[in-house]
Design a protein that fits this description.
alpha+beta; 6 helices; single chain; four-stranded antiparallel beta sheet
Amino acid sequence: MRNVGLSYLTPLLAKLKQKQVKVNRITLIQRVIREKSIQMWRLSETKNEYNNFQNLVNGHLKNTVDVEKLNSSLLVHQVAKHAGKPNLSFIYDGSDLRKGESEKLENLGWVKSLSGQWIRGYSSFNSIVLDRKKGVVGLLSSIPYSNRDPLFLSEKERK
């Protein structure tokens, strides 16, 4: 996203460490300028965007996680730590992130609780490395996803 006409904000934007927070702020500022309005409902193209803008302005959006950067960093760290070692096992596992008390998270889906009940949450696909000799486990990557995401394709839909 280009910062056309926003050069005066460069010092402020430079202080933001997370790319997505910076992109969200630039998008919001550009919409305010384009629409000549500060009404969130007018600036937003979707309900999710409206909620993101609201959270950005009211301080509820504390940070976002760039999954690609996190996984890249994890992988680089674990490769350096375990390179050339024998006795390594790699385990790939799907697991649920249970958010039983949550109601308003983006694309909040359904997962099973430990007791087998359906509750709110997300799923994730995780990769770990196990050093069998030392008994050390290292996270290689974790990819969260939601069965409520518009791009999610269920097994039934794949058939």
